[in-house]
Structure prediction request, 190 residues.
Amino acid sequence: MRNIIKDGVELLANVVGFLKGYAYNVEIIKVFDNDLNLTVIFGIEIPALEERNKKREPADINHKYPLCLGPDGVYLRRCLGDLNMAIQHLDDTAFYCFRALESLKQYFGYILEISGDREQWEEMSKAIGGNREDIEPIRKLAFPARHGVPEPITDKKRKEVFLITWDIVEKFMDYRLKQYGSDFRLHPIP
Prediction:
């Protein structure tokens, strides 16, 4: 219900924003009935990610934040920004998750001075494990949106996209921490 209402209000806000040159953000947090009695308060959580990350500690940020600094930190900063957008925009979840992973791929192009897309994906796979095919479910869902084709996403697919993406991003962070000589890990070392 929240997403349906938000989509309608965002459309109106986007039209007004375009006409006026303004940027608006829409957040639906509560629903009231006809008598103005509060009926629902929406949370900010994504249940699958909340469950996945329930053992994370607030202090974990102390290890991750420095990875976002400096010229090579821009790739992780962009990745995290896109993941925030993926959480906020239901129908564009795969688009933003794929773009987040592309930012991490670009890190390897920057560091290794390689420009080829395939080579960057290969270097990323070698560094963090897995292979390019691991992201194929996300790519398949993302490409229609990347080319202007609107496609809805089911809750099941959205959960899958989130979990795959979060696993890859954490592996990247662990890789970067290892580069810095840190033994802190979000993922157990295989």
Remarks:
- The CA atoms of residues 6 and 28 lie 6 Å apart.
- Residues 46-179 form one domain.
- The chain has a mean pLDDT of 88.
